[in-house]
Design brief:
The chain is mainly beta and 562 residues long. The protein has a domain at 34-143 and 260-306 and 327-362 and 407-561: Outer membrane protein transport protein (OMPP1/FadL/TodX) (Porin, Beta Barrel), CATH 2.40.160. It contains seven helices and 27 strands. A 14-stranded antiparallel β-barrel has the order 1-2-3-9-10-12-13-17-18-20-21-24-25-27. The longest helix is centred in the last third of the chain and has 10 residues, at 447-456. The chain starts with 21 loop residues before the first helix and ends with a strand.
């Protein structure tokens, strides 16, 4: 097989400041509401229901529905389950996935804690009560871990790095030359500066060059010798032909089969701390306002490994010795922390006996985000004296992200105090997301990614259905269902990424102040397809991973009314 030298998009590796993508914007903007065990048990279909601290983040008017104060605390256990299968390359144009591997990851969180205090005005009509509240609700959970792998005798991660390095001077990659061609001795230089063409190098390419997993090859007299690369997993044969620049033409081939594996772990979440103000008008109309402070923490860690099935297939001759490639690992770590402020207004009305209607709208949130990342590479040979490793400096960048507005509406109907049925609809327009500079608010750094958002993102539609039945006044049984279409588009055609959530719950309310609720929730995400490295051959695609994603939540709420 001959290499095709094409531009490769390295989506997960920082190249320089401003390497954000529209997928980062989507990840940080999406909500997947948690709340109390009651609200989760009812599928968070709470826009027109209220009376629960889990509902306050969905509709601020919910705090004013009941004429009492309350305090709740809600612990939760999340279990992420991912089943991943591997396709080394397509066969007859179709990926065949084999070797399914399951990875579970558990996490303990506190998705709700808060209190509301109700003050009665003493009036029989008009403004009957005012409620003040402070509530902390989780609005997303990023927990997940996966792994996949298999045998590959066609392509190599290191080979993709060799292709990506094409055109960069080896001395520049190793920090021996700056972009002006002057001699230096600074291994950090290529991470922070452009080469003589003004190009910034992907950090994983630099660590591969500095670790020695890619190197120059062939006739040192070729004009492009110091700008072309071969991987430790490859061999080459020199032909008698030359290209138009006077370089010999080489056939480059993978030495033999490799055992490859890819793994990823994600943790963190998004939380809203809410200052709430609610008003009760004649027990028929409720109005509420939220000042929300969003905090974001997102931690991402991935690795890719490949090892020779038979090291003797990967002979490497140096002037002083011969050795054989053994194994390789590269790792990328990334974390982001952010905070922002938004406002929300909502109402609940009771136009007829048993019927409730509600609606709320939330302003866009401007998140101030600080992110850091690091890349490392290790390569090992049978002769350990040739082993190499490299770790990048810690990269960091700060910027602003404006997340979309949200609008939701709901209907609920209560049945003679014995139960209720509730339906919500929520609209979010992700096309309005925008990256901005941290300081002045606008920068051409983000023009391309903001255009991607405008071209490929769209509206997300979510429907939530919830029910609660009370066979006796002290005991409740609940169920809920959510359906969300995520907003990713391709040429105007929806890719139909969907999220299905099923929940059940029970609740106990004493005749005094104490109440307790328990809920279980199952979330099924759309299948995810991951390409660990980009295609670099003209006739063979790189590996593809199919991941089926599920999540389980067990939630309990303890509460007191006063």
């Amino acid at each position: 097989m001959k290499k095709t030298f094409i531009a490769i998009s390295l989506l997960l590796t920082a190249v320089t400041a401003g390497a954000q993508t529209m997928y980062d914007a989507l990840t940080f903007s999406q909500n997947n509401y948690y709340g109390t065990a009651r609200s989760m048990g009812m599928g968070n279909a709470m826009t027109a229901v209220g009376g629960d601290l889990g509902s306050v983040g969905i509709n601020p008017a919910g705090s004013a529905v009941y004429n009492y104060s309350q305090f709740t605390i809600t612990p939760n256990v999340t279990i992420s389950s991912m089943n991943s299968s591997w396709s080394a390359y397509p066969v007859n144009g179709t990926d065949t996935y084999t070797g399914e591997i399951n990875r579970n990851l558990s996490r303990f969180t506190m998705p709700n804690i808060g209190a509301t205090v109700n003050f009665k005005t003493g009036r029989r009509r008009g403004l009957k009560g005012v409620t003040y509240g402070f509530v902390v609700n989780s609005v997303n959970n990023y927990t997940g871990q996966m792994m996949a792998g298999g045998k590959n005798d066609k392509t190599s991660y290191q080979s993709s790095m060799a292709v990506s390095a094409d055109g960069y001077d080896i001395d520049f990659l190793n920090g021996y030359l700056n972009g002006s061609g002057q001699s230096i001795d600074d291994w950090r230089h290529p991470y922070e500066n452009a080469d003589d063409r003004g190009y910034y190098t992907p950090w994983n390419v630099i660590t591969n060059a500095q670790a020695g997993s890619i190197a120059n090859y062939g006739d040192a007299n070729d004009p492009d010798y110091y700008y072309r690369y071969i991987a430790a997993t490859e061999g080459f044969i020199q032909t008698s032909e030359k290209d138009q620049y006077g370089n010999y033409i080489y056939d480059i081939f993978l030495g033999g089969p490799l055992n490859q594996s890819f793994g990823r772990k994600v943790t963190g979440g998004k939380t809203d701390a809410i200052l709430n103000l609610g008003f009760n008008f004649t027990d028929k109309f409720f109005l509420g306002f939220n000042l929300g402070i969003t905090s974001l923490n997102y931690n991402y860690d991935e690795y890719f490994k490949e090892a020779a099935v038979d090291p003797s297939d990967f002979r490497i001759d140096y002037d002083e010795a011969t050795t054989y490639f053994s194994d390789y690992r590269t790792r990328y770590s990334y974390s982001a922390d952010g905070a922002g402020v938004y406002g929300k207004i909502g109402f609940i009305a009771l136009p007829a006996e048993g019927l409730r209607i509600g609606a709320a709208i939330q302003t866009p949130t401007t998140l101030f985000i600080d992110e850091i990342w690091r890349q490392s590479t290790d390569v090992n040979y049978q002769n350990s004296s040739f082993n190499g490793s490299a770790t990048s400096p810690e990269g960091n960048f700060s910027y602003r992200l404006t997340t979309p507005y949200r609008a939701n509406a709901g209907l609920a109907y209560t049945f003679m105090g014995m139960g209720l049925l509730s339906v919500d609809y929520e609209l979010t327009d992700y096309k309005t997301m925008k990256f901005k500079d941290r300081e002045d608010g606008w920068s051409d750094t983000f023009d391309e990614v903001n255009q991607d958002i405008a071209d490929h993102m769209g509206k997300s539609h979510s429907v939530r259905i919830g029910a609660e039945v009370k066979p006796v006044p002290e005991f409740a049984v609940r169920a809920g269902y959510n359906f969300t279409i995520t907003p990713e588009y391709n040429g105007g055609v929806t890719l139909n990424d969907k999220l299905h959530i099923i929940s059940v719950g029970v609740g106990y309310s004493s005749k005094g102040s104490f109440f307790a609720d328990l809920a279980a929730r199952y979330s099924a995400f759309s299948d995810e397809f991951i390409s660990p490295y980009a295609d670099y051959l003209s006739d063979v695609a790189s590996p593809m991973i199919l991941t089926k994603r599920e999540r389980y939540d067990i939630t309990a709420t303890l509460g007191w009314r006063f």
